[in-house]
């Protein structure tokens, strides 16, 4: 377990920024309840453990040092992992973090919820609602109409283009959804 | 002349005293020495000029002065004699009329004579100068008499310090003047009669008497203003009546050379005379429009003409004149012009829409020329434009038919080709038939009065494009000045395509210069604009820095369904900039918009989105953020509560589904809001709040007396009241304690509404109708508030009961027992006294505690 180096930090932050925009500040500066002894508020930090990136409170990091690196499997919230090629991918575990601070949202119609949870892209026909001025390439968090976060992805079309899109056109490219907890139980 | 002869006598000087004789006391001397500042003015006195002033008459013309005094006395005597004679003459029968006692104690006996005169006078006026001779006699007499009696009174008082007039001269003067007056009056009458005569003859038979039009024009060139005005107005009446229902086209040279019948000649002459005089008349009107004395008359003439005969020649000039006055500083003129344009827009059948197009284009130019610094009225006229949307729809089946027809024809041709081409004769015959049919069609079109659908559509497109152009110009202008005064965009270079939705044929897709985006720094333009702004904004300043913005936003809301989707993004960006404008420029009032204007922007954004909902359901997060912050910036007297209520309605009540976090944040903020403002605002907020709670079941957690919110509150564990983003406020972690305070609100309606809302969770029957919108609630309470106040001041108990009864009727939910507010005065008194006793007790308690603390601490100190 170690802190991220500069290159890794920029990679992680750039990815997160796509989804949360200026709310990244909230993620970094979020006070932790764990380990706060009344006088000093604890903070959260990012830690790398075996190519996975974790979002952990500082007090937990201190306590985790008792466990050897090989034996430590997970701590805090996993937000993503570095591939062999060195690029950073967000994983489904980061969903809550993203959903709380999301800048662009997409709401799914109830009929298409299942389709998305099986790992498919979001089509125009299944679009219940979309945040205004989403640009193509922005990170989008996918919600159900009852405001339950389902997953996230990348906007394939801007809000303007969505209007003219035919119902079968792809609006959001799938990246992760909560169906993965069942589908890929072993990998996670 | 009389005035020049007048010599003003100096006031009587104090008796001359030689300088030596004046004794100055020691006290005075010492005073002057002590207060040199006081005496300073003595040095600066211009003794020369004072001397000159005082001794002007006395030194220079002593002789004349004496003569004057002598004259005066003589005149007095003679006058007195005269008047006595008169009085003797008048005292014919004292029995008839009671005498009048003047201020100086003289008795004046009225005789029948003046009465007769008066009668005659009236008669003269009625008979239009028939008895002018009589009038001539009687008037001067009466005037002279009046003057004399006045003089008498003055001399009786005897405090005439200076001589007013040289009497003899003045009388002659007065007489001459009166004569002049009379002659002009007579002349005026004569001219008036002439005008009436000529006008009547013209109206009776315009063709025969067309020449007399010129006569009226001649008369209207008179020196007398009244005559000119009368002439203009009578010409207006005549023209309004005789102008034909078609446009006159003057015959060409070639046509003139041709031999024509007598009747045609006559008509031609008639038309050409009419046209030339009309032209001359209009020229006069337009020149007069610039002169202040004729302004009202000429503008009224122009407006009436435009309203009555918009199809006739020279419409362009009339329109130009009207549009120029559309934002006149004179209220009457502006109202007249605006109402003319409105009627022009609403009665399009009169001119087939051409005038509308021209007028709209002219207004667009006007707005451009004045850099959007005009009176709001000038843009409000656009609200009266009507665009027929089904104009295009009727065309679709036609096109389809045509295609079918074409297909059939092709088929036929094909078959024909298949057939032998031998029957050439037959084909040529068919061609001929088709040709004639086309000709007949064209003729029919020309003859029929129904305007061509395509033509009308083209005109509508142009009109719409001009309207949008104006609106967008205003918007961009506001954006420019609001965001940063240094940022200016290149209007000429950035051209966007706006295709208006009515038009779906590609060749009619209009290209419109929309000036959104593409900012560029250009300080030279900046300097120029600031210069013009400062000069014009003085008048329109009372409408804020952007007088045209509010009507522009209203107008856009009305025609937003005609906007093309492609353009909507730009419009949204623009509105977003405007809505954010106030918060960005901190402190400096120069470019920022008022809260109402920003609220209007939000409303418009929602309207545009809703009108185009068929395309996509878009979540306008940014505008919600703006509304969230605007709720805090709202001030009841500065900003328009109606706009706020409308915003609440369009954004929160009518929106489909809300984000839970956001809804909770709005609920919390609205509750806080309703605590801090008047009853009308509070009610509007409460109605919205109830609506939100009804829609969002999860947000009812706020009503539970259990802070924390649990897992629902998301990442933010604590409510942040000042957060600017509703999503980040963590409102679900809070409790709606405001409602329990509002339950004790002095206004019964509000307190009942608050208690209904707080019971929303437990009450099983949630089927009651949510009929009242925030707007309605605001309006009701705004009026009721006034009534409430007024009656409250009167303090009549039974009236109060009545009002309270009405309140309980209009209460949102009447099933609550808390509604029974049969409060009478004594009850109120009792409650108040209880309240104040409690307050006093609390104060006392605190004081005692403080004392106790102090003693305890001192005891401890002592022990230590």
Automatic annotation (TrEMBL), chain A:
Pfam families attached to this UniProt entry: pre-PUA_NIP7 (PF17833), UPF0113 (PF03657)
GO BP term, pick one: ribosome assembly
Entry-linked SMART domains: PUA
A Gene Ontology molecular function term of the record: RNA binding
Domain PUA: 104-179
CDD domains: Nip7_N_euk, PUA_Nip7-like
Origin: domain of life: Eukaryota
Main location: nucleus
SUPFAM superfamilies documented for this protein: Pre-PUA domain, PUA domain-like
PROSITE patterns for this protein: PUA
Subcellular location field: Nucleus, Nucleolus
Any one Gene Ontology cellular component term annotated for this protein: nucleolus
Keywords: Nucleus, Ribosome biogenesis, RNA-binding
InterPro entries membership: NIP7_N, Nip7_N_euk, PUA, PUA-like_sf, PUA_sf, Ribosomal_synth_fac_NIP7, UPF0113_PUA
Subunit structure: Interacts with pre-ribosome complex.
Family: Belongs to the NIP7 family.
Biological role stated in the UniProt entry: Required for proper 27S pre-rRNA processing and 60S ribosome subunit assembly.
Protein name: 60S ribosome subunit biogenesis protein NIP7 homolog
From TrEMBL, chain B:
Domain CCAAT-binding factor, chain residue ranges per copy: 599-754
Domain of life, per lineage: Eukaryota
InterPro entries in UniProt: ARM-type_fold, CCAAT-binding_factor, Noc3_N, Nucleolar_cplx-assoc_3
Keyword Coiled coil found: yes
Region (Disordered): 114-134, 411-432
BP GO annotations: DNA replication initiation
Location of the protein in the cell: Nucleus, Nucleolus
Keywords recorded for this protein, A-Z: Coiled coil, Nucleus
UniProt GO molecular function: chromatin binding
Principal subcellular localization: nucleus
Coiled coil regions, renumbered to chain: none
Family designation: Belongs to the CBF/MAK21 family.
Designated name of the protein: Nucleolar complex protein 3 homolog
Organism (species): Kingdonia uniflora
């Amino acid at each position: 377990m170690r802190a991220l180096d500069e290159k890794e930090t920029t990679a992680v932050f750039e990815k997160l920024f796509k989804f949360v925009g200026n709310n990244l500040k909230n993620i970094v500066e979020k006070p932790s309840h764990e380990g706060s002894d009344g006088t000093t508020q604890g903070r959260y930090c990012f830690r790398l453990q075996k190519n996975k990136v974790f979002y952990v409170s500082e007090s937990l990091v201190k306590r985790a040092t008792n466990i050897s690196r090989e034996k430590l499997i997970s701590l805090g919230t996993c937000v993503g992992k570095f591939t062999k090629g060195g690029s950073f991918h967000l994983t489904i575990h980061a969903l809550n973090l993203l959903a709380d601070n999301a800048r662009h949202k997409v709401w799914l119609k109830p009929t298409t919820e299942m389709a998305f949870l099986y790992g498919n892209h979001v089509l125009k026909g299944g679009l219940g609602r979309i945040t205004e001025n989403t640009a193509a390439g922005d990170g989008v968090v996918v919600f159900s109409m009852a405001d339950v976060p389902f997953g996230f992805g990348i906007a394939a079309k801007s809000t303007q283009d969505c209007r003219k899109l035919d119902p079968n056109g792809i609006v959001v490219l799938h990246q992760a959804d909560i169906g993965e907890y069942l589908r890929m139980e072993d990998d996670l | 002349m009389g005035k020049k002869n007048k010599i003003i006598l100096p006031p009587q000087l104090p008796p001359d005293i030689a300088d030596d004789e004046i004794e100055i006391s020691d006290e005075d001397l010492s005073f002057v020495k002590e207060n040199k500042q006081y005496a300073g003015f003595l040095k600066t006195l211009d003794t020369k000029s004072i001397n000159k002033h005082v001794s002007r008459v006395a030194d220079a013309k002593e002789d004349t002065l004496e003569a004057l005094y002598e004259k005066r006395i003589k005149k007095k005597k003679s006058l007195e004699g005269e008047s006595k004679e008169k009085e003797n003459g008048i005292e014919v029968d004292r029995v008839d009329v009671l005498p009048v006692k003047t201020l100086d104690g003289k008795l004046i006996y009225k005789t029948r004579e003046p009465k007769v005169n008066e009668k005659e006078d009236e008669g003269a006026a009625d008979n239009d100068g028939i008895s002018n001779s009589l009038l001539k006699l009687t008037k001067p007499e009466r005037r002279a008499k009046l003057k004399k009696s006045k003089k008498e009174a003055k001399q009786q008082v005897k405090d005439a310090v200076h001589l007013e007039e040289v009497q003899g001269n003045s009388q002659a003067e007065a007489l001459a003047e009166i004569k002049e007056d009379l002659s002009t009056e007579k002349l005026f009458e004569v001219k008036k009669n002439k005008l009436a005569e000529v006008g009547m003859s013209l109206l009776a038979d315009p063709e025969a008497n067309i020449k007399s039009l010129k006569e009226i024009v001649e008369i209207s060139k008179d020196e007398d203003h009244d005559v000119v005005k009368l002439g203009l107005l009578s010409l207006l009446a005549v023209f309004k009546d005789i102008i034909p229902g078609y446009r006159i086209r003057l015959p060409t040279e070639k046509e003139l050379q041709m031999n024509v019948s007598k009747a045609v000649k006559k008509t031609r002459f008639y038309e050409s005379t009419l046209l030339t005089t009309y032209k001359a008349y209009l020229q006069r009107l337009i020149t007069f429009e610039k002169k202040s004395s004729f302004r009202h008359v000429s503008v009224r003439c122009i407006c009436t003409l435009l309203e009555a005969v918009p199809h006739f020649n020279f419409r362009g000039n009339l329109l130009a004149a009207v549009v120029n006055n559309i934002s006149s500083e004179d209220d009457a003129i502006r109202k007249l012009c605006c109402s003319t344009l409105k009627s022009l827009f609403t009665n399009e059948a009169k001119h087939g829409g051409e005038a509308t197009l021209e007028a709209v284009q002219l207004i667009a130019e006007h707005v451009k020329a004045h850099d959007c610094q005009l009176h709001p009225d000038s843009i409000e006229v656009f609200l009266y434009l009507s665009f027929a949307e089904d104009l295009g729809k009727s065309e679709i089946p036609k096109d389809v038919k045509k295609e079918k027809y074409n297909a059939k024809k092709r088929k036929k041709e094909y078959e024909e080709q298949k057939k032998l081409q031998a029957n050439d004769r037959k084909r040529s015959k068919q061609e001929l038939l088709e040709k004639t049919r086309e000709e007949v069609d064209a003729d029919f079109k020309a003859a029929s009065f129904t305007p061509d659908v395509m033509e009308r559509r083209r005109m509508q497109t142009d009109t719409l494009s001009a309207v949008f152009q104006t609106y967008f110009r205003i918007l961009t202008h506001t954006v420019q000045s609001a965001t940063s005064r240094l940022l200016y965009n290149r209007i000429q270079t950035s051209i966007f395509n706006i295709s208006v939705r009515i038009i779906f044929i590609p060749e009619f897709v209009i290209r419109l210069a929309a000036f959104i985006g593409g900012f560029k720094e250009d300080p030279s333009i900046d300097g120029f604009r600031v210069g013009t702004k400062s000069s014009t904004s003085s008048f329109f300043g009372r409408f804020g820095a952007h007088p045209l913005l509010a009507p522009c936003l209203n107008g856009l809301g009305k025609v937003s369904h005609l906007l093309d989707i492609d353009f909507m993004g730009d419009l949204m960006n623009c509105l977003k900039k405007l809505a954010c404008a106030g918060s960005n420029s901190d402190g400096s009032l120069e470019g920022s918009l008022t809260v109402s204007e920003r609220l209007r922007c939000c409303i418009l954004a929602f309207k545009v989105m809703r009108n185009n909902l068929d395309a996509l359901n878009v979540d306008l997060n940014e505008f919600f953020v703006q509304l969230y912050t605007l709720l805090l910036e709202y001030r009841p007297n500065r900003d328009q509560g109606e706009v706020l209520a409308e915003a609440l309605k369009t954004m929160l009540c009518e929106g489909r589904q809300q984000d839970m976090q956001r809804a909770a944040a709005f609920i919390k903020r609205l509750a806080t809001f309703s605590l801090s403002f008047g009853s009308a605002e509070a009610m509007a907020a409460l109605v919205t709040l109830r609506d939100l709670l009804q829609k969002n079941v999860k947000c009812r957690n706020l009503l539970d007396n259990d802070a924390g919110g649990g897992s629902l509150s998301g990442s933010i564990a604590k409510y942040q009241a000042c957060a600017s983003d509703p999503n980040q406020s963590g409102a679900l972690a809070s409790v709606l304690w405001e409602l329990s305070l509002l339950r004790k609100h002095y206004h019964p309606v509000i307190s009942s509404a608050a208690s209904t809302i707080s019971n929303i969770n437990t009450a099983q029957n949630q089927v009651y109708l949510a009929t009242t919108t925030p707007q309605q609630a605001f309006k009701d309470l705004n009026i009721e508030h006034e009534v409430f106040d007024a009656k409250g001041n009167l303090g009549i108990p039974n009236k109060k009961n009545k009002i309270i009864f009405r309140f309980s009727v209009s209460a949102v939910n009447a099933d609550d027992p808390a509604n029974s507010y049969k409060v009478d005065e004594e009850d109120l008194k009792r409650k108040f006294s209880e309240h104040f006793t409690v307050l006093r007790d609390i104060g006392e308690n605190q004081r005692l505690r403080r004392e106790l603390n102090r003693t305890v601490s001192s005891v401890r100190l002592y022990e230590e």
